[in-house]
Amino acid sequence: MKHFRLLAVLLIAAALVTTAIFGRIVSGQGQDINQAPQADKVSATGFPVTASQSTGKFPVPNCGEGIDCETVNPFDESTFIFTAGAGDRPPAADQCVPPCPSCPTPEECEHAEEAPADFSTDTNGHATPDEHKDDLVEFNKVDEIDPDGLGPVYNAQACRECHQNPVSGAISQITELRAGHNDAANEFADAPGGSLINDRAINAKIQERVPPLFSALVYPTVSNPSPSPIPKEESVRTFRTSLNLLGDGFVEAIANGTLLAISNAQSNLSGGAIHGLAIAVPVLEANVQDNRDCANRARPCFRRLGRFGWKDQIASLLSFSGDAYLNEMGITNFLVIDENSSLGRPVAAFDPFPNDRTLPCEVPVENCPSCPCGEDDQRDIDAFARFMRATKAPPQDKEVQAAFEADVKEGRALFEKMPGLHYSCSVCHVPAIVTVRPGTLINSQQFKVDNALGFKVIRPFSDFLLHDIGTGDGIVQNGTQVTRLKVRTPPLWGVRTRTRLMHDGSSVSPTGSAVPPSGASFTFKEAILRHQGEAAAVTAQFQALTDEQKRQLIVFLESL
Question: I want to staple 519 with a disulfide (CB 3.0 to 4.6 A). Which of 163, 434, 481, 506 is the partner?
């Protein structure tokens, strides 16, 4: 937000008046304190998806209701591999593909390039060097209340606060806090205002905390003239560690069909013990014109398979940018236009830029010219999305792999297949995937994959699917209740830069204890031992390894 400095001064001054005046302001809105508008309106609009195909002579693959397979058959296992060899490649990366269904197979095959990998701020080719440099400036920029519209509730002042180790776009030690409770039917319900509990606020009166709150944030309204506390305890709580964003442009370019094919192959390889769950979630930019937030359940809602966030709650990088700008920094934008409340209570009296739906964009949104931009009038979320799409993937440490060549080789073998099993870690932490071909339309037809991102071999060591490995935090976001105890498989590329592992980075081992508690995940060994549920058989075999074998597996992980 760059143009409303005078307005901001006047409104900030208004927000500093007495509590009595604030009460009249809220009463004038005619709105109950626990019915404030929420930004997280796409919650519960996702659903689980499985692949199917029609019967007959020419079966047609199906990637779920309304879901585009994005050119990949969900029963084709050629676009990924479970083997962990350093040079192993998915078969589709080197297959000869006819240019059309009736065309002859070309004599010379086209080979997919390895995705560029480096801890640097150089572009991967999706953006020009100058564009990428400018986008990096926006990614690193510290937002303020005035003129940018920071808050009223928020977690950080810049993208890099949560994503900057060792370079901007990577990970950090920063966590966010979520909370809720289980209802009488043992189904998860959000805390008032949503499961995200913001750590910061621009005014102490609207600071969020995990309820119960017996005195804070108590203001009269028309429907509730007597101040009331928030007495209900939200007993389901968790931290969520920040995720790496480097290389996410390649992750976005993985076909829906590939993710479903991985899920099918996991079940086949493990005898049904492991089966990643894919969920279809709204693509915000595809719905912003005709069904914002997919709020009207009677109208079409365009979805794609989720792949970003610990609950796979986001499907595209532009959606991710809009969601994070509001939920992490409190800045409304053309995709997420309404401010968050403070535990369900209105914050308008403290907002320097209210009435976000009346604030225009400097440059109209291409597929929604009438859309307001809220506090993001210069459409920073476009720059954030382009920046992430142009980042290189996290590299493996080739020096470690060379210095400990024998150990890494043995570690790779154990990562691929545990003694006594037909599979191992790599069944979920998928070593290599090939992205869709350049020119493919993804994100519900909103984004065309270019040469920099298309037909590339990436080595993320993830399936980007949801699993129950016994560490689920009980939180439901964009999926149904079936996702409550599931979390996304974290990519292991760049895992050596993480100081706190697993989704919650939990917890501290007792001083002097030889055996860590079940929650500890500061070391690779502790993180492995936390894997139960679908991963229980692999964990049991890990515990049966010799100390030397365990060390070799961990040396391999330290090279990623």
Answer: 506
pTM above the 0.85 mark? yes
Q: Backbone phi, then psi, for 148, in 5-degree steps?
A: -90, -20
CA dihedral 442, 447, 452, 455 (to 10 degrees): 10
Alpha helices by DSSP H, listed for 293-343, are 317-327
In the block, tokens 């535990």 appear at 343
Q: How many domains does the chain have?
A: 1
Domain that holds residue 146: 5-45+124-244+281-389
Q: What is the pLDDT of residues 381-420, one digit of tens each?
A: 999 999 999 999 999 999 999 999 999 999 999 999 999 9
| Residue spans of the chain under pLDDT 50 | 3-39, 41, 509-513
Is 501:521 a contact under the CB 8 Å cutoff? Answer: yes
Q: Is 463 within a domain?
A: no
- What integer pLDDT is reported at residue 520 of this predicted model? 79
Q: Is residue 437 part of a domain?
A: no
Residues 347 and 309 sit within 8 Å (Cβ to Cβ):
no
**Full DSSP string of 42-107:** TTT--EEE--EE--SSS--EE-STT---TT--TT-GGGEE----TT---GGGG----SSTTSPPPS
The DSSP output letter for 531 is: -
Q: What is the pLDDT of residue 508?
A: 53
